[in-house]
């Protein structure tokens, strides 16, 4: 299986504890992951993603600029120089770079964007201000179609609450890029079908499975257009999500929390195990093959090697997304994993790279 979009593997802003990068990778490979794509959200992140990918045969990277970071084009010496360096990063990354992105449209604007001179002329709620922001995002999304056309790489696409704007831009530029996936999809059934009809793939993670409406859409994604991801360190499946009940449709292993925490008395080690009286059933397994269902975690200030950091999603939880999708779609889990694997390989690894462990 190949998992997409691991932002947590660019570690600097997420390290509140001892660097556990190797342990994160070990947990990922134990659940069957073959390769991991690390997402670049800016020029510097893309360069860092490539640097990390070069340390491990199983890791790959994307190069691009996230819609909430497009102000970096203007903060650079000039926008063309920023673009030229994105092209350079793709070339320097060689076969380690498998997609352009994460790029797309998003109405959210980080506070730093208001520091730009062209936005200081208007108050933040002024309609002229909003038009300038939208125009800027559209312009630099368009620029990344240039990047995809130049490099002939597929696109890793972002879309959040943009109405018809995103689909309109995709339609206008679809002839310019080979293929792509709209990741972390939370849109409507109609939007999903439009994107599928444009020969694109739909990426599903925990954020794509929050509501009953989300689940209804996920059920309808054609299997030959489905991909799964985690969007680490975000988008884990939570107890409040509509998907959670589909995750725990099998007996769960009994875990000695005191043994895992190494502490006496009050225990701050947590898992996603359903509470007593809510359908849970204590069953002791001989191995830990399904510990990804109830991963033990510690608060970041009480980090313990071997356990997840509470609130930080990891690549190995990809099995949770697969489990939910298999259950809501009434498909065999192993068969669905094979379909998703082939879809991902078709887009990002068309030359059929050999498993590095083979």
UniProtKB/TrEMBL annotation:
Chain intervals with Polar residues compositional bias: 262-274
One term under GO cellular component: cytosol
Signal peptide: none
Ranges of biased composition (kind: Basic and acidic residues): 275-284
Region (Disordered): 257-285
GO molecular function: 3'-5'-DNA exonuclease activity; metal ion binding
Record-linked SUPFAM superfamilies: Metallo-dependent hydrolases
Database matches in Pfam families: TatD_DNase
Entry keyword annotation includes Transcription regulation: no
Coiled-coil regions listed: none
Family matches, as PANTHER family: DEOXYRIBONUCLEASE TATDN1 (PTHR10060:SF15), TATD FAMILY DEOXYRIBONUCLEASE (PTHR10060)
Protein name: Putative deoxyribonuclease TATDN1
Organism of derivation: Smittium culicis
């Amino acid at each position: 299986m190949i998992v997409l979009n691991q932002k947590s593997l660019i570690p600097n802003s997420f390290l509140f504890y001892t660097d556990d990068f190797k342990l994160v990778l070990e947990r990922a490979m134990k659940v069957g992951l073959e390769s991991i794509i690390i997402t670049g959200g800016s020029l510097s992140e893309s360069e860092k993603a490539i640097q990390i990918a070069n340390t491990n045969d199983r890791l790959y990277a994307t190069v691009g600029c996230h819609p909430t970071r497009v102000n970096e084009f203007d903060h650079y010496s000039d926008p063309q120089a920023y673009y030229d360096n994105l092209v350079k990063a793709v070339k320097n990354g060689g076969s380690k770079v498998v997609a352009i992105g994460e790029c797309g449209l998003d109405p959210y604007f980080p506070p730093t964007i208001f520091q730009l001179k062209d936005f200081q002329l208007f108050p933040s709620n002024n309609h002229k201000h909003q038009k300038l922001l939208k125009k800027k995002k559209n312009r630099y999304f368009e620029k990344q179609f240039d990047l995809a056309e130049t490099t002939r790489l597929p696109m890793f696409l972002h879309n959040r609450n943009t109405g018809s704007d995103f689909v309109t831009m995709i339609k206008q530029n679809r002839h310019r890029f080979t293929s792509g996936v709209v990741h972390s999809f939370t849109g409507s059934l109609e939007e999903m079908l439009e994107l599928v009809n444009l020969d694109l793939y739909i990426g599903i993670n925990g954020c794509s499975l929050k509501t009953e409406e989300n689940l209804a859409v996920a059920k309808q994604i054609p299997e030959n257009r489905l991909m799964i991801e985690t969007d680490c360190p975000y988008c884990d499946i939570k107890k409040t999500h509509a998907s959670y009940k589909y995750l725990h449709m099998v007996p769960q292993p009994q875990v000695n929390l005191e043994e895992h925490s190494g502490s006496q008395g009050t225990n701050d080690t947590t898992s996603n195990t359903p509470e007593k009286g809510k359908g849970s059933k204590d069953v002791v397994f001989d191995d830990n093959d399904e510990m990804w269902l109830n991963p033990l975690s510690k608060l970041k200030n009480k980090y313990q090697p071997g356990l997840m950091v509470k609130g930080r999603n990891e690549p190995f939880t990809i099995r949770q997304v697969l489990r939910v999708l298999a259950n809501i779609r009434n498909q065999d889990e192993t068969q669905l994993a094979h379909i998703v694997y082939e879809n991902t390989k078709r887009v990002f690894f068309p030359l059929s790279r050999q498993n590095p462990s083979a």
